[in-house]
Design brief:
Mean pLDDT: 94
Number of domains: 1
Bound molecules: adenosine-5'-triphosphate, magnesium ion
Strand content: 25-35%
CATH superfamily: P-loop containing nucleotide triphosphate hydrolases
Radius of gyration: 19 Å
Strand order of the largest sheet: 6-7-8-3-9-10
Largest sheet: 6 strands, mixed
Low-confidence stretches: none
Shape: globular
């Protein structure tokens, strides 16, 4: 009798988000500008994807569509079993607040609030006790190594610390997906590397799915996959 060979199948994570033939056209005066052209893209759960491309190639537009902040002119975006176009405004807002955390190049912290108060913002709309909110904020600040700065105002923090606060704010609802638009664009290279290493930890140890826009090839090395966008089309991919 032939021996039965047991072959270990490669572990492939499920697709977290899929773009099916997505195009986006903006109308400026009488002109129509097709900024994204028939984008086909799958991002698997737990991937860290870097999105690169020249200025004006459509990177931020793509992030806005994937985040449900804007809608495609053509094509569809699916997250799990859900097509984003099928959600009404309230459901879309709920989807975003449960699944997504945003990190911006310029941090977008409120200057009159302390680090802890900024981090708490996404929780204010959730039905939750003060005690639980405080615990979650502390946990998020600990993950980014800023538990000692909870009472500082943004102006009393360095740029790298401000970005950590904004990452803690993105993490505080425990979303599956982090969307980062040039998170190290305003930081010196050493501080930028620390932020990138932290995002990599969030992927590898916390299982987050990350999509990050960057202009920097060094930054892209922290990702598990790099996608090149040019003139609104995906021109290349590297693992
Ligand atoms: N709301 C809008 N109305 C009209 N045109 C827009 C709008 N938003 C973006 N565009 C145009 O779409 C193109 C792509 O813009 P986008 O912001 O996505 O580029 P990007 O790749 O993020 O660039 P950068 O690296 O400079 O941030 C640009 O030509 C821009 O002028
Ligand atoms: Mg942009």
């Amino acid at each position: 009798m032939a021996a039965v060979e047991i072959v270990a199948l490669p572990q492939v994570s499920p697709v977290f988000i899929e773009l099916e033939g997505v195009s986006k056209t903006f109308i400026k005066g009488r002109q129509q500008v097709e900024v994204l052209k028939h984008i086909q893209l799958q991002i698997r759960q737990g991937e860290f994807v870097a999105l690169m491309g020249p200025s004006g190639s459509g990177k931020s537009t793509l992030l806005n569509l994937i985040s449900g902040l804007d809608t495609p002119t053509k094509g569809r975006i699916r997250c799990g079993e859900t097509y984003l176009e099928q959600l009404n405004d309230r459901q879309l807002a709920q989807w975003r607040s449960q699944q997504l955390g945003f990190v911006f190049q310029n941090y977008q912290l409120l200057p009159v609030l302390t680090a802890a108060e900024n981090v708490a913002l996404p929780l204010l709309l959730k039905n939750m006790s003060k005690k639980e909110r405080a615990m979650r904020v502390q946990n998020a600040l600990e993950i980014v190594g800023l538990e000692g700065r909870a009472d500082h105002l943004p102006a009393e923090l360095s740029g790298g610390q401000e970005q950590r606060v904004s990452i803690a704010r993105a993490l505080v609802t425990d979303p599956q997906f982090l969307v980062c638009d040039e998170p190290t664009g305003n930081l010196d290279s050493k501080t930028g590397q620390e932020i990138l290493a932290m995002l990599q930890t969030l992927q590898q140890d916390f299982g987050k799915t990350i999509l990050m826009v960057t202009h920097d090839l060094h930054a892209a090395r922290f990702a598990s996959r790099t996608i090149q966008l040019q003139d609104g089309q995906i021109r290349g991919e590297a693992a």
